[in-house]
Amino acid sequence: MNFPYTDELRGRFADRLANFQRQTHDGADGAGGHLKRAAVTVTLIDDGDGQTAFVMTRRTPRLSSHAGQKALPGGRLDGDETATQAGLRELSEEINLHLDNDAVLGLLDDYPTRSGYVITPVVIWAGSGATMFPNPDEVVKIMPIPLAELIRPDSPEFITIPESERPVLRVRWGDDHVHAPTAAVVYQFIEVAMRGRSIRVDHVEQPVFAWR
């Protein structure tokens, strides 16, 4: 299955996201406290061969949290920022991709993480000719993942662990994979934008190493 990087695909994704009744989270942590707000981006680019890919990064091992892990560009909201504003800012800071609000196609469900955040995913269309390069203080590598690699019979995977009654989610591409929370965002993007289905992901679990 191909996903050519065209205005037609951009419009299709934008329409599906506009019609998706996204689920928000009030930020309560269940113990009388509040989860921190963060945004991540599903940033769609031309892979160089006219096909659509999304941007995954590998975080520098020098970071204080989640060092060296694969991640979607994103981070904590600053002050009164919206998720959209934070997502665009993080793209600029992490991979030197400078876009404005016109690039935003829509939002997916808020996802509460075990590490104390509520993540809001922002879907972005970078446009033809977009350029980027990693900020070495935050990102070691930019990894474009073709959307076609996400459509496969062995993905997503739902794995049982003894520490939780909820299934751990894993999404595969090529010879690689990622777990929730990143996998939850990618999986919902696949279903909502790519397949036109409405699904929820707040029930999926993260592996134990991501609980801190």
Description:
There is one protein chain. By secondary structure, this protein is of the alpha+beta class. It has a single domain, classed as Nucleoside Triphosphate Pyrophosphohydrolase, CATH 3.90.79. Helix content is 18%, strand content 28%. The strands form 2 sheets. Strands 1, 2, 3, 4, 5, 6, 7 and 8 form an 8-stranded mixed β-sheet that branches. Strands 9-10-11 form a 3-stranded antiparallel β-sheet, with helices on one face. Strand 10 and strand 11 form a beta hairpin. It is globular. The protein starts with 6 loop residues before the first helix and ends in an 18-residue tail after the last helix. The mean pLDDT is 93.
Secondary structure layout plus pairing:
Blueprint: H1 7-19, E1 36-46, E2 52-59, E3 70-71, E4 74-76, H2 83-95, E5 104-107, E6 111-112, E7 117-125, E8 139-146, E9 157-159, E10 168-173, E11 176-179, H3 182-194
Parallel strand pairs: 1-7
Antiparallel strand pairs: 1-2, 1-4, 2-3, 2-8, 5-7, 6-7, 9-10, 10-11
Name the average pLDDT: 93
The CATH homologous superfamily is named Nucleoside Triphosphate Pyrophosphohydrolase
**Largest pleated sheet:** 8 strands, mixed
Oligomer: single chain
CATH architecture: Alpha-Beta Complex
Unreliable parts: none
By helix and strand content, what is the structural category? alpha+beta
Q: Report helical residue fraction.
A: 10-25%
Count of DSSP strands:
11
State the CATH topology: Nucleoside Triphosphate Pyrophosphohydrolase
Categorize the overall geometry: globular
Mind telling me the C-alpha Rg?
Answer: 16 Å
Number of domains: 1
Q: Tell me, what is the CATH class?
A: Alpha Beta
List SSEs in N-to-C order. HEEEEHEEEEEEEH
Please work out how many helical segments DSSP would assign.
Answer: 3
Beta-strand percentage? 25-35%
Termini separation = 37 Å
